[in-house]
Amino acid sequence: MNYETTMSGTLDGGVLAERENTSRRRVIIALIVVAILVAIGAAYYFMGGSGAAAPAGDEKNSQAQTVTVVAPGRDTVVRAINATGTLAARREIPVGVVGEGGQVTRVFVDAGDWVQRGQVLISVDRSVQVQQAAALEAQIGVARADLLLAQNELDRALQLVERGFISKADVDRKTATRDAARARVNVANAQLGETRARNARLDIRAPVSGYVLERNVETGQTVSAGSGILFRLAQDGQMELQAQLSENDLALVTEGVPASVTPVGTDRVFNGTIWQVAPMINTQNRQGIARISLPFDKALRPGGFASVEIKAGSMSAPVLPESAVQTGREGSFVYIVGKDNKVKQRPVKVGDTTANGLIIASGLDGTERVVLYAGGFLNPDETINPKLLKKP
């Protein structure tokens, strides 16, 4: 009995000790949790500046995303019009047969040559025409001999009429004979002159000085008035670009405006000026032609394609980076930040592209705060935290 009582007492004491230790651990854990909560509360108090709740508006601003905005202002930019067109001779002169033609005996020039006004381009056989001219010269000789004889007879008749050997009627007949002989001489001279002029037209000559663009005749070929164009000349070698411009662009250019032309296949730039603006618009494509004069250069080949940049004066307009301009179903737009820091869509019309960005032709006056980046992630009436970026 005593043994069992002693063992029972020992077991009860161990259980009680274990329970006390568990209670102590729970108390310690509870104290640690309380200390952590107190520390968090203190940190929140001091970081918030006060223990009072923040106003609703400040809470919204603290949750709004920070977005970079810019006030573009207005810049003076050069209005540049980019277009394309076809190279051509400023004054292209077609050359064909103006006489009766014949067989070509010789061609003196080729495409790419320079010619002077009146220079012979081709020569046509004139063996028959030369004989005709010789016959007319002989007829002139006969007519002059008849005239000389008629004049001598008239002179003698005038001397005899005073003595009464010849009547006045005979003198009149001899005078008429002399006048008819003189008329025949004049007719023969005119016929000879006509024949010589026709023979001269057998030589095809350059009507103007210039550059030979095209040759369509060979030695031995028979040519006539129906042979078509034998040569094409660029008068004085002057070239031009016939730039196709829209109605709006055509209204911005005038004669004398400078332009830079770059032919296809080369990186060379040729400077020219607009010398004529088309008075009419093509009803099919709604475009007109601005003709840009260019100096002669072999790299400017008529019929070739070229691009042109026309300096159409300067203008004052806002300029924005491409990241600020969005595109929707109704066209281009930007996001404007109002005084309440809410964004609004503003439709704009985009002009030309410059080194600094896109020219805003209409829709902005430059004083607005425009979202510079992240416009694609915003929604209308969304509140943001704007960060103004100053333009350099």
UniProtKB/TrEMBL annotation:
Keywords: Membrane, Transmembrane, Transmembrane helix. GO terms for molecular function: efflux transmembrane transporter activity. Belongs to the membrane fusion protein (MFP) (TC 8.A.1) family. Signal peptide: none annotated. Residues 319-371 form the Multidrug resistance protein MdtA-like C-terminal permuted SH3 domain. One of its GO terms (cellular component) is efflux pump complex. Residues 241-312 form the CusB-like beta-barrel domain. InterPro entries: Beta-barrel_RND_2, BSH_CzcB-like, MdtA-like_C, RND_pump_MFP. The chain crosses the membrane at residues 27-47. NCBIfam families: RND_mfp. Residues 101-229 form the CzcB-like barrel-sandwich hybrid domain. This is Efflux RND transporter periplasmic adaptor subunit. The keyword Transmembrane applies. It comes from Sphingorhabdus lacus.
